[in-house]
Design brief:
heterodimer, A: about 300 residues, alpha/beta, six-stranded mixed sheet, five-stranded antiparallel sheet, 10 helices, 15 strands, B: about 250 residues, mainly alpha
Chain lengths: ~300, ~250
């Protein structure tokens, strides 16, 4: 059971560049898969193509064996989406919005109502259930849309930046909810919060300029990186001999290196009684490493000093 | 899971009509009162002679404008709230969605229609045949207006653009067309301009059926042909071009 994309390419009418360029990937439809990438990387385009809202220019894809074009009717029975910038209509209440969505999915009015009330409790907006959505905060509005798909029976849920606009506590609560639901459903979501993706997603894909640069579990992705450890030193610390990459930021010096290199740097810093921290490379560094961007405001250079 | 098709249609009516009116009851009052202004003006200016035809005009206006206004609702759901994306990726078919939105347009107009029918019973004398003729013509006009609304809604990428189309169409359909008075009151050669609006053909049929206008059988047949033909063509394009899945 997987999403299989084969050479998916998308070029919007009237544009010269490709929003997606020969994307081929296999994603098991189990747990949570997070697509990350810069703005305009192609995350929304890929999500909309898989969510049967947008035609690819070429290539094809299947979801659990159902073709996204030929079997769209059957596919729409098992999928649900939350679009980027999606908003619930302001003149209804959260309960009415969720109920309406469930009725579009074919629930009878009574079951839709019961499910709406139940999910409203789960996502923590019971107090606001009868308020006009127009009067709710941006984060609560976002929760209403999340509630729509969570209240449904959809096995495969595409969410395009579902946590954008949510405060830290709401985001944490959202991910916890997904964590509970992922046993029975598959979530593909796009996000800019890399630390959340790293700690909660079972699989990650990095898109840049319409190309899928890498995809897999965090461990699989780490193995694709030459330097898997990060040693962080003080800003003005004297850098000991090592082989790897050095990244200078406004308040620290970061060294990306091998396990052996990290041990060597750590020993040297201990010998000097200097402050440092060491950790496996995080998704942040992996992301920047793949998209070849500088970390924070610092410069990234290949560095060898042995 | 067994899907309830009726629910899928009713969902659109609930969202854009029932909840709208329930949560903002003032909209019912607004809908109820909306036909009054022009009827009153025509009644005074014609010294009561054209009250009946003005009531017919109010009926046409209500159906046509509510049909066109559906374009803004669709545009809202599609471009502004992106709710249509959620519906596309659900078991609801394009047809159920269109049908539901069309019914919603009718539901929103209900207070207005009830009020006009009360005026109608007082000022317009109809037989069963003429009532059926009026009903058929009004139904076609509404389908035509909704089709035009859908056709344009799929081509707009912004709600502000939809509002401009609504304004222009409202002007064309309710001002260029002689719906509040018989076309015979328009001096030549300006009368021909009225035929640029498809609503004119429906208005002629309705006014002829209720005795406010007398046109030849040939002219009447031509009116029906144009009205049915235009409605069929616009409905075809509306369904064909509905961008359920974007290209």
């Amino acid at each position: 059971m997987a999403i299989e994309c084969v050479k998916i390419t998308k070029k919007y009418p009237g544009t010269t560049s490709k929003s997606l360029d020969n994307v081929s990937v296999s994603i098991p439809t189990k747990g949570i898969f997070s697509l990350i990438g810069r703005n305009g990387a192609g995350k929304t385009t890929l999500t909309r193509i898989l969510g049967t809202q947008l035609m690819p220019s070429s290539g094809h894809a299947t979801i659990n064996g159902l073709d996204i074009i030929d079997d769209a009717k059957e596919l729409r029975e098992i999928i649900a989406v939350i679009p980027q910038d999606g908003r619930p209509v302001p003149w209804v209440t959260p309960a009415q919005m969720i109920m309406t969505y469930l009725m579009w999915r074919g629930y009878g009015i009574r079951e839709a109502k019961a499910r709406a009330v139940s999910v409203i409790k789960d996502i923590g907006i019971y107090k606001e259930k009868d308020m006009h959505i127009g009067k709710l905060s941006g984060g609560t509005k976002r929760k209403v849309l999340v509630g729509c798909v969570l209240a449904s029976e959809a096995e495969i849920v595409f969410m395009d930046e579902p946590t954008t606009g949510l405060d830290l506590i709401s985001r944490t609560s959202f991910w916890e909810t997904l964590g509970k639901l992922k046993k029975d459903r598959f979530f593909l979501l796009t996000t800019h919060y890399l630390e959340e993706a790293e700690s909660l997603a079972d699989g990650i894909g990095i898109l840049d300029n319409g190309k899928l640069l890498v995809s897999g579990s965090m461990d699989q992705i780490r193995k694709r990186i030459r330097y898997r450890y990060m040693v962080t030193l003080g800003k003005d610390a004297k850098v000991p001999a090592f082989k790897g990459k050095i990244i200078r930021t406004s308040n620290s010096t970061k060294i990306m290196t091998s396990e052996e290199g990290a041990k060597r740097v750590a020993s040297e810093m201990i010998r000097r009684h200097a402050e440092f921290s060491m950790s496996p490379i995080s998704l942040n560094e992996i992301f920047y490493s793949f998209v070849k961007e500088d970390i924070e405001t610092g410069k990234s250079d290949d560095y060898e000093k042995e | 899971m067994k899907r309830n098709k009726l629910s899928q249609v009713w969902a659109s009516v609930l969202l854009t009509a029932v909840y709208w009116m329930r949560n903002y009851p003032i909209s019912i009052v607004a809908s109820f009162l909306s036909p009054i202004s022009i009827v009153v003006i025509i009644a005074f200016v014609s010294k009561g002679a054209l009250v009946g035809v003005a009531v017919e005009g109010a009926l046409i206006t209500t159906f046509v404008l509510n049909g066109i206004m559906e374009m803004t609702d669709i545009s809202h759901l599609k471009n502004d709230f992106k709710i249509q994306d959620m519906v596309v990726a659900s078991p609801t078919s394009a047809f159920s969605y269109i049908f539901g939105m069309s019914l919603s347009s009718l539901a929103t107009a209900l207070p207005s229609i009830i009020f006009i029918l009360i005026l109608w019973s007082v000022f317009v004398h109809t037989t069963v045949v003429s009532a059926l003729t009026v009903f058929a013509a009004v139904a076609l006009l509404m389908i035509l207006a909704i089709s035009i609304g859908f056709f344009l809604a799929t081509r707009t990428s912004d709600i502000s653009e939809s509002y401009q189309f609504t304004t222009i169409l409202s002007l064309l359909f309710t001002t260029v067309s002689p719906i509040y008075y018989p076309i015979s009151l328009i001096p030549m050669p300006y009368r021909y301009l009225a035929y640029l609006s498809p609503i004119t053909y429906g208005a002629e049929i309705i006014q002829n059926a209720t005795g406010y206008l007398s046109i030849s059988s040939m002219n009447l047949v031509l009116d029906w042909i144009v009205l049915v033909g235009l409605t069929a063509v616009m409905l075809f394009f509306a369904i064909k071009d509905l961008r359920w899945r974007e290209a």
